[in-house]
Specification:
- This protein is of the alpha/beta class.
- It has 6 helices and 9 strands; from the N terminus they run αββββαββαβαβαβα.
- It is globular.
- It is 31% helix and 25% strand.
- The structure holds hypoxanthine.
- The site of hypoxanthine has 13 residues, from β5, β8 and β9.
């Protein structure tokens, strides 16, 4: 069923573009401006793509962009759907699976996240070294789709070290403040309680967010080389005096968007 849908979706996209992307990128909340750096070949709104769902959250556009940066062919998902919107995990990862079937080798995931390390400052970046899936679900649940990948995928290096090192190098060279660490994926849509934040710190988390983990699982399943970066838009609940709002998250992401785009532009040309 999923396989049939993927086939239909890929065939549709192929009627609009023949581009063979090397890398797929998912742009998270408030980080969509990267597409302005892209020599765009084709833009397709999600609502025109068979089997794609459109995001319902503010700060998330819904467009697939195929194009190039410095001659590197890219497929970009500008905006994603989340588990908390009511979608199944299979639906959440459908777009990333589509990118892989368009021929990508590398998937880069980006997101906004809450900082769990008290030394962080909103606006910092964090390279994902690993994740903890606390969503209570897994996109690979149910019959395995053998053509996509194995029943029990290895997740020892879910985020490829060499890609993370390249990200580090570029951020350091550009004097951008960044961290490395474990991302805790939660279902949301509530932000965490201070007690939950203390729990996440105790289990070794450095950032917390409501996306990325399902996509990283599905991309690993398909043998993609995966890397991910968080924009720390806020300190997690209880670590700062103020209450959390979605506006604060998207505003902070917007504030660092130019720095993020500079980084990404360099990264895609160096991997
Ligand atoms: N918690 C969960 N998800 C988030 C946060 C947060 O503090 N900030 C941005 N996404």
């Amino acid at each position: 069923m999923v396989q049939q849908k993927l086939k239909e979706t890929v065939e549709f996209i192929r009627t609009r573009s023949q581009l063979k992307p090397r890398m797929g990128i998912v742009l998270g909340s408030g980080l969509g401006a990267f597409v302005e750096r892209v020599e765009v070949e084709t833009t397709i709104p999600y609502d025109e793509i068979p089997n794609f769902n459109s995001p319902t959250v503010e700060g998330h556009q819904g467009r697939l962009i195929l194009g190039k940066v410095g001659g590197i062919e890219l497929a970009i998902l500008q905006g994603r759907i989340h588990y908390y919107e009511g979608h199944s995990m299979a639906d959440v990862v459908f777009p990333v699976r589509t990118l892989a079937l368009l021929g990508t080798e590398i998937i880069m995931l980006t997101n906004s996240a809450g900082g769990l390390d008290p030394n962080m400052k909103p606006g910092d970046f964090m390279i994902l070294e690993d994740h903890i899936n606390l969503m209570g679900d897994n996109p690979l649940k149910g019959p395995n789709i053998k053509n996509l990948g194995p029943r029990f995928p290895d997740m020892t290096e879910a985020y490829e070290k060499s890609l993370s090192e390249k990200m580090s190098q570029i951020l350091s060279q550009n004097n951008v403040r960044y961290w490395k660490g474990t991302y805790c994926g939660v279902s949301g849509p509530t932000y965490e309680t201070p007690a939950e934040v203390r729990f996440l710190q105790t289990i070794g988390g450095k950032a917390v967010g409501m996306s990325t983990v399902p996509e990283a699982i599905a991309a690993n399943h398909m043998g993609q080389r995966v890397c991910a970066m968080s924009c720390i838009t806020n300190m997690a609940a209880g670590l700062s005096a103020s209450k959390l709002t979605h506006d604060e998250v998207t505003e902070k992401a917007k504030e660092v968007e130019a720095r993020f785009c500079d980084f990404l532009e360099e990264f895609v040309q160096q991997v």
